[in-house]
Design a protein that fits this description.
It is built from 10 helices and 13 strands. It has about 325 residues and is an alpha/beta fold. It has a domain of about 200 residues: Rossmann fold. It has a 7-stranded parallel β-sheet, with helices on both faces. A two-stranded parallel sheet has the order 7-10. Helix 5 links the parallel strand 5 and strand 6. The longest helix has 23 residues. The radius of gyration is 19 Å and the shape is globular. About 50% of the residues are buried. It binds NADPH dihydro-nicotinamide-adenine-dinucleotide phosphate and guanosine-5'-diphosphate-rhamnose. The site of NADPH dihydro-nicotinamide-adenine-dinucleotide phosphate has 25 residues, from helix 1 and strand 5.
């Protein structure tokens, strides 16, 4: 039985990846950080099926200890301060978690299993920022536009560097935005689908948003964790762009979400200039050709299906119904 260790197991991707690895017969271990209240909502269904260990990406020894204790075959480093606007408010902390944190995990892997443990780093399309090429591929130069993006560029290159310096099996997945009913409520897709459901049910009157013109290449998180796993099943480590190859505006997202409940978006949406970012990433669109040809990966859920899935789940949740079970295979 293979053993996997996931940092960031309580996050959106950590929960989907845990489910996928369990279905592939893995023993799954997850890193959680200590807090005064438990934040295990997304992995509540996995209680008793996965093993949780306390450690923190800020604390080198805790990472070494958890790898020593769990002896994983594969380490998925998903933990990060992942909300872009917060990275302008807490740039130093973001650098520590999202950037240097990667080195701490790599150091622990190097110390305890450099020839044996495969490593996955959760890199991001935010590294492309003010894009220098459209669509973006594995060879497109980076031009990050937020402290988060800058920290992820560091995480990407340190992963490549450990692969080249120590011949370690290290992969960097450059993932474009991926969403689901488990997405944090501050991210725009979930903010919109939650807001639309509240308006539909008479629990809110308006929805405040920032830049409606920015464009993203949005996919379904359940599809994207499969690409992470496939990267570590190859003979050689490499880096891959994971994306749908389609881009949509925030405005289109809003239209689709309101359409799903039969309402007209322009009656409810208000622009709040405080939500517009100091520097924006305007046109993200990924070219997933390498992932398709080398990994045999392709997205299963369309943008329209994704928005509908998320609106339905938020309506069900707010009405106290059980949330439809959207697993990694889609809807
Ligand atoms: P989430 O924000 O949902 O989850 C982040 C996870 O990191 C949480 O489990 C959080 O724990 C954990 N974490 C944060 N800081 C620390 C720390 N110091 N020590 C240990 N754990 C910590 O992110 P996603 O699941 O959406 O994303 C997973 C990864 O993929 C992130 O690295 C993100 O930057 C990256 N990414 C995400 C994309 C997306 O569209 N979702 C696209 C590209 C990259 P806690 O629950 O305690 O807060
Ligand atoms: P992003 O995701 O910054 O791409 O990072 P987010 O959903 O926060 O923003 C997407 C776009 O929507 C615009 N926008 C708003 N965004 C938020 N959050 N709230 C609003 O009210 C709003 N109005 C408009 C933003 O300006 C932006 O252009 C996500 C995270 O998961 C990162 O961790 C990951 O690396 C990248 O995706 C790929």
């Amino acid at each position: 039985m293979k053993r996997a260790l996931i940092t960031g197991v309580t996050g959106q991707d950590g929960s989907y990846l845990s489910e996928l690895l369990l279905s592939e017969g893995y023993e799954v271990h997850g890193v959680v950080r200590r807090s005064s209240t438990e934040n295990f909502e997304r992995i509540a269904d996995l209680s008793g099926k996965i093993h949780l260990h306390q450690a923190d990406l800020l604390d080198q020894l805790s990472i070494i200890d958890v790898i020593k204790e769990t002896q994983p075959d594969e380490v998925y480093n998903l933990a990060a301060m992942s909300f872009v606007p917060t990275s302008w408010k807490q740039p130093v902390l973001t650098g520590e978690f999202t950037g240097i944190g990667v080195t701490r995990v790599l150091e622990a892997v190097k110390l305890l299993g450099r020839d044996r443990i495969k490593f996955y780093q959760a890199s991001s399309s935010e590294m492309f920022g003010k894009v220098l090429e459209v669509p973006q591929t594995e060879t497109t130069p980076f031009y990050p536009r937020s402290p988060y993006g800058v920290a992820k560029v560091y995480g990407h290159w340190i992963t490549v560097n450990y692969r080249e310096s120590y011949n370690m099996f290290c992969c960097s997945g450059i993932l474009f935005n991926h969403e689901s009913p488990r997405r944090g409520r501050e991210f725009v897709t979930r903010k919109v689908t939650d807001g639309v459901a509240r308006i539909k049910l008479g629990m809110a009157k308006t929805l405040k948003l920032g830049n409606l013109d920015s464009k993203r290449d949005w996919g379904f998180a359940g599809d994207y964790v499969r690409a992470m796993w496939l990267m570590l099943q190859q003979d050689k480590p490499d880096d891959y762009v994971v994306a749908t190859g389609e881009t949509h505006t925030v405005k289109r997202l809003v239209e689709l979400a309101f359409d799903a409940v039969g309402l007209k978006w322009d009656k409810y949406v208000e622009i709040d200039s405080s939500l517009v970012r100091p520097a924006e990433v305007d046109l993200l669109i990924g070219d997933p050709t390498k992932a398709k040809t080398k990994l045999g990966w392709k997205p299963e859920v369309t943008f329209e299906q994704l928005v509908e899935m998320m609106v339905k789940a938020d309506l069900a949740r707010l009405q106290g119904q059980s949330i439809p079970d959207f697993k990694a295979k889609g809807i």
